[in-house]
Protein backbone atom coordinates (compact mmCIF):
# COMPACT_ATOMS: atom_id res chain seq x y z
CA UNK A 1 0.00 0.00 0.00
CA UNK A 2 1.44 3.35 -1.03
CA UNK A 3 1.54 6.40 1.21
CA UNK A 4 1.02 10.09 0.46
CA UNK A 5 3.55 12.74 1.49
CA UNK A 6 3.41 16.52 1.42
CA UNK A 7 6.73 18.37 1.47
CA UNK A 8 5.79 21.90 2.53
CA UNK A 9 7.83 25.09 2.43
CA UNK A 10 7.70 25.89 6.14
CA UNK A 11 5.97 25.50 9.48
CA UNK A 12 3.46 28.22 8.63
CA UNK A 13 1.96 26.12 5.83
CA UNK A 14 2.04 23.03 8.03
CA UNK A 15 -0.07 24.82 10.65
CA UNK A 16 -2.66 25.99 8.11
CA UNK A 17 -2.65 22.78 6.06
CA UNK A 18 -6.21 21.71 5.09
CA UNK A 19 -7.57 19.00 7.37
CA UNK A 20 -9.36 17.30 4.47
CA UNK A 21 -6.10 16.47 2.69
CA UNK A 22 -4.63 13.20 3.91
CA UNK A 23 -0.97 12.33 4.09
CA UNK A 24 2.21 12.81 6.09
CA UNK A 25 3.72 16.31 6.16
CA UNK A 26 7.47 16.89 5.85
CA UNK A 27 8.66 20.46 6.48
CA UNK A 28 11.52 21.82 4.36
CA UNK A 29 12.80 24.05 7.15
CA UNK A 30 15.75 25.58 5.31
CA UNK A 31 16.88 28.74 3.48
CA UNK A 32 19.28 27.28 0.93
CA UNK A 33 19.15 30.55 -1.00
CA UNK A 34 21.52 31.94 1.65
CA UNK A 35 25.02 30.72 2.47
CA UNK A 36 27.22 27.69 1.86
CA UNK A 37 25.47 24.92 -0.09
CA UNK A 38 28.52 22.86 -1.03
CA UNK A 39 28.63 19.18 -0.17
CA UNK A 40 28.08 16.22 -2.47
CA UNK A 41 26.29 14.03 0.07
CA UNK A 42 23.27 14.99 2.16
CA UNK A 43 25.19 14.49 5.41
CA UNK A 44 28.04 16.72 4.25
CA UNK A 45 25.62 19.42 3.14
CA UNK A 46 23.69 19.33 6.41
CA UNK A 47 26.87 19.57 8.47
CA UNK A 48 27.87 22.70 6.54
CA UNK A 49 24.38 24.14 6.78
CA UNK A 50 24.25 23.60 10.54
CA UNK A 51 27.46 25.57 10.96
CA UNK A 52 26.31 28.36 8.66
CA UNK A 53 22.78 28.69 10.05
CA UNK A 54 23.94 28.72 13.67
CA UNK A 55 26.61 31.32 12.92
CA UNK A 56 24.24 33.68 11.14
CA UNK A 57 20.75 33.11 12.53
CA UNK A 58 19.48 33.10 16.15
CA UNK A 59 18.22 29.52 15.96
CA UNK A 60 20.05 27.71 18.73
CA UNK A 61 22.76 25.08 18.51
CA UNK A 62 23.98 22.85 15.70
CA UNK A 63 22.55 19.91 17.63
CA UNK A 64 19.11 21.54 17.55
CA UNK A 65 19.49 22.12 13.81
CA UNK A 66 20.18 18.42 13.28
CA UNK A 67 17.32 17.35 15.55
CA UNK A 68 14.90 19.60 13.71
CA UNK A 69 15.85 20.59 10.17
CA UNK A 70 18.17 17.66 9.35
CA UNK A 71 15.86 15.00 10.78
CA UNK A 72 12.92 16.43 8.84
CA UNK A 73 14.78 16.52 5.53
CA UNK A 74 16.07 12.98 6.00
CA UNK A 75 12.46 11.77 6.08
CA UNK A 76 12.49 12.37 2.31
CA UNK A 77 14.90 9.43 1.99
CA UNK A 78 12.26 7.12 3.47
CA UNK A 79 9.77 7.77 0.65
CA UNK A 80 9.22 4.67 -1.48
CA UNK A 81 9.07 4.49 -5.26
CA UNK A 82 5.28 4.02 -5.40
CA UNK A 83 4.41 6.62 -2.76
CA UNK A 84 2.81 9.89 -3.84
CA UNK A 85 4.83 13.05 -3.16
CA UNK A 86 3.37 16.54 -3.31
CA UNK A 87 5.83 19.43 -3.23
CA UNK A 88 4.18 22.63 -1.95
CA UNK A 89 6.41 25.50 -3.06
CA UNK A 90 5.89 29.10 -4.12
CA UNK A 91 7.38 30.83 -7.17
CA UNK A 92 9.96 33.06 -5.45
CA UNK A 93 13.68 32.27 -5.50
CA UNK A 94 13.82 31.42 -1.77
CA UNK A 95 11.20 28.70 -2.24
CA UNK A 96 12.47 27.57 -5.62
CA UNK A 97 15.97 26.76 -4.36
CA UNK A 98 14.45 24.60 -1.61
CA UNK A 99 12.15 23.00 -4.21
CA UNK A 100 15.08 22.16 -6.50
CA UNK A 101 16.93 20.62 -3.56
CA UNK A 102 13.99 18.44 -2.44
CA UNK A 103 13.25 17.30 -5.98
CA UNK A 104 16.90 16.43 -6.56
CA UNK A 105 17.00 14.48 -3.29
CA UNK A 106 14.01 12.43 -4.45
CA UNK A 107 15.42 11.90 -7.94
CA UNK A 108 18.91 10.88 -6.81
CA UNK A 109 17.36 8.35 -4.43
CA UNK A 110 15.47 6.71 -7.32
CA UNK A 111 12.09 8.30 -6.63
CA UNK A 112 11.01 9.12 -10.17
CA UNK A 113 7.24 8.69 -10.30
CA UNK A 114 4.09 9.98 -8.59
CA UNK A 115 5.70 13.39 -7.94
CA UNK A 116 3.54 16.52 -8.07
CA UNK A 117 4.04 20.25 -7.63
CA UNK A 118 1.40 22.27 -5.78
CA UNK A 119 1.62 26.02 -6.38
CA UNK A 120 -0.34 28.94 -4.94
CA UNK A 121 -3.26 30.29 -6.95
CA UNK A 122 -3.11 33.27 -9.28
CA UNK A 123 -2.43 36.46 -7.39
CA UNK A 124 -0.70 34.61 -4.53
CA UNK A 125 2.22 33.17 -6.48
CA UNK A 126 4.64 34.18 -3.74
CA UNK A 127 2.55 33.34 -0.68
CA UNK A 128 0.50 30.35 0.40
CA UNK A 129 0.01 32.37 3.59
CA UNK A 130 -2.54 34.65 1.92
CA UNK A 131 -4.74 31.69 0.98
CA UNK A 132 -7.51 30.10 3.05
CA UNK A 133 -8.05 26.36 3.51
CA UNK A 134 -10.53 26.11 0.65
CA UNK A 135 -8.10 27.84 -1.71
CA UNK A 136 -5.30 25.54 -0.58
CA UNK A 137 -7.53 22.52 -1.24
CA UNK A 138 -8.27 23.81 -4.75
CA UNK A 139 -4.53 24.34 -5.33
CA UNK A 140 -3.98 20.70 -4.36
CA UNK A 141 -6.68 19.58 -6.80
CA UNK A 142 -4.81 21.43 -9.56
CA UNK A 143 -1.40 19.97 -8.74
CA UNK A 144 0.93 19.38 -11.67
CA UNK A 145 2.66 16.05 -12.32
CA UNK A 146 6.43 16.22 -12.74
CA UNK A 147 7.38 13.42 -15.11
CA UNK A 148 9.90 12.16 -17.62
CA UNK A 149 12.40 14.59 -19.11
CA UNK A 150 10.93 17.50 -17.13
CA UNK A 151 11.67 15.71 -13.88
CA UNK A 152 15.22 14.96 -14.96
CA UNK A 153 15.86 18.58 -15.97
CA UNK A 154 14.29 20.08 -12.85
CA UNK A 155 16.33 17.75 -10.65
CA UNK A 156 19.52 19.05 -12.29
CA UNK A 157 18.81 22.61 -11.18
CA UNK A 158 19.96 21.93 -7.61
CA UNK A 159 23.38 20.58 -8.60
CA UNK A 160 23.79 23.45 -11.05
CA UNK A 161 22.89 25.92 -8.31
CA UNK A 162 25.45 24.31 -6.00
CA UNK A 163 28.17 24.62 -8.64
CA UNK A 164 27.11 28.11 -9.80
CA UNK A 165 26.33 26.92 -13.33
CA UNK A 166 24.08 29.88 -14.08
CA UNK A 167 24.16 29.40 -17.85
CA UNK A 168 23.03 25.78 -17.51
CA UNK A 169 20.20 26.82 -15.17
CA UNK A 170 19.06 29.46 -17.64
CA UNK A 171 19.04 26.93 -20.48
CA UNK A 172 16.86 24.54 -18.48
CA UNK A 173 14.47 27.33 -17.47
CA UNK A 174 14.17 28.31 -21.15
CA UNK A 175 13.47 24.69 -22.14
CA UNK A 176 10.74 24.34 -19.51
CA UNK A 177 9.18 27.81 -19.68
CA UNK A 178 5.96 26.56 -21.31
CA UNK A 179 5.33 23.92 -18.64
CA UNK A 180 6.87 25.78 -15.68
CA UNK A 181 6.77 29.52 -16.52
CA UNK A 182 7.82 30.54 -12.99
CA UNK A 183 11.29 29.01 -13.42
CA UNK A 184 12.80 31.63 -15.70
CA UNK A 185 11.97 34.63 -13.46
CA UNK A 186 13.45 32.78 -10.47
CA UNK A 187 16.62 31.80 -12.32
CA UNK A 188 16.99 35.32 -13.71
CA UNK A 189 16.54 36.71 -10.19
CA UNK A 190 19.41 34.49 -9.04
CA UNK A 191 21.64 35.63 -11.90
CA UNK A 192 20.74 39.25 -11.10
CA UNK A 193 21.96 38.74 -7.52
CA UNK A 194 25.53 38.51 -8.74
CA UNK A 195 27.79 41.50 -8.30
CA UNK A 196 29.88 42.68 -11.21
CA UNK A 197 32.49 45.44 -11.01
CA UNK A 198 30.66 48.41 -9.46
CA UNK A 199 27.25 46.72 -9.72
CA UNK A 200 26.44 45.14 -6.33
CA UNK A 201 23.67 42.85 -7.56
CA UNK A 202 19.94 43.49 -7.87
CA UNK A 203 18.94 43.07 -4.18
CA UNK A 204 21.49 45.59 -2.91
CA UNK A 205 20.90 48.00 -5.78
CA UNK A 206 17.16 47.81 -5.06
CA UNK A 207 17.75 48.48 -1.37
CA UNK A 208 19.89 51.52 -2.18
CA UNK A 209 17.08 52.87 -4.38
CA UNK A 210 14.52 52.24 -1.61
CA UNK A 211 16.69 54.05 0.96
CA UNK A 212 16.92 56.99 -1.43
CA UNK A 213 13.21 56.99 -2.30
CA UNK A 214 12.02 56.68 1.32
CA UNK A 215 14.80 58.87 2.68
CA UNK A 216 15.35 56.48 5.57
CA UNK A 217 17.53 53.54 6.60
CA UNK A 218 15.04 52.40 9.23
CA UNK A 219 14.63 48.65 8.78
CA UNK A 220 10.84 48.20 9.02
CA UNK A 221 9.77 50.53 6.17
CA UNK A 222 12.77 49.54 4.03
CA UNK A 223 12.02 45.83 4.48
CA UNK A 224 8.32 46.33 3.73
CA UNK A 225 9.12 48.20 0.52
CA UNK A 226 11.74 45.63 -0.54
CA UNK A 227 9.13 42.86 -0.17
CA UNK A 228 6.79 44.82 -2.46
CA UNK A 229 9.34 45.60 -5.15
CA UNK A 230 11.30 42.34 -5.04
CA UNK A 231 8.69 39.67 -4.28
CA UNK A 232 10.49 37.35 -6.70
CA UNK A 233 13.28 36.88 -4.14
CA UNK A 234 11.06 35.85 -1.22
CA UNK A 235 13.71 37.06 1.22
CA UNK A 236 12.79 37.18 4.89
CA UNK A 237 13.83 39.81 7.41
CA UNK A 238 17.12 38.04 8.20
CA UNK A 239 18.30 38.11 4.58
CA UNK A 240 17.24 41.71 3.98
CA UNK A 241 18.69 42.93 7.28
CA UNK A 242 22.07 41.35 6.43
CA UNK A 243 22.09 43.11 3.04
CA UNK A 244 21.08 46.41 4.61
CA UNK A 245 23.79 46.09 7.26
CA UNK A 246 26.40 45.54 4.53
CA UNK A 247 25.22 48.64 2.67
CA UNK A 248 25.29 50.82 5.79
CA UNK A 249 28.70 49.48 6.83
CA UNK A 250 30.20 50.40 3.45
CA UNK A 251 28.54 53.80 3.14
Q: Could you explain the architecture of this structure?
A:
A five-stranded mixed sheet has the order 2-1-3-4-5. With 251 residues, the chain is an alpha/beta fold. It is built from eleven helices and five strands; from the N terminus they run E-H-E-H-H-E-H-E-H-E-H-H-H-H-H-H. The termini are far apart. The mean pLDDT is 95. The radius of gyration is 18 Å and the shape is globular. The protein has helices spanning 11-15, 42-56, 62-74, 93-108, 133-141, 148-162, 166-175, 183-193, 202-214, 219-229, 237-249, and strands at 4-8, 24-27, 84-88, 115-118, 144-145. Helix 6 packs antiparallel against helix 7. It is 52% helix and 8% strand.
Task: Output the keywords.
alpha/beta, 5-stranded mixed β-sheet, about 250 residues, globular
Order of helices and strands: EHEHHEHEHEHHHHHH
- State the distance separating the first and last CA atoms: 61 Å
What's the number of helices? 11
Give Rg in angstroms: 18 Å
- Which secondary-structure class do the elements indicate? alpha/beta
Number of strands: 5
Helix content: 40-55%
What is the average per-residue confidence, as pLDDT, rounded to a whole number? 95
- Side by side, the strands of the main sheet go 2-1-3-4-5
Q: Which percent band covers the strand fraction?
A: 5-15%
Q: Low-confidence runs (pLDDT<50, min 5 residues)?
A: none
Amino acid sequence: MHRTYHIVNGDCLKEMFPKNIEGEIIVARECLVDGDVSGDSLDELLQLRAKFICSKYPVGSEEEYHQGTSAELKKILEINEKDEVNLWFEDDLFCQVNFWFCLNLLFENDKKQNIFLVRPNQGNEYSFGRMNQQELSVAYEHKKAIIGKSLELLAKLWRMYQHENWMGMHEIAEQLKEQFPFLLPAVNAQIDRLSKEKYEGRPKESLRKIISDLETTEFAPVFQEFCKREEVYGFGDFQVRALLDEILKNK
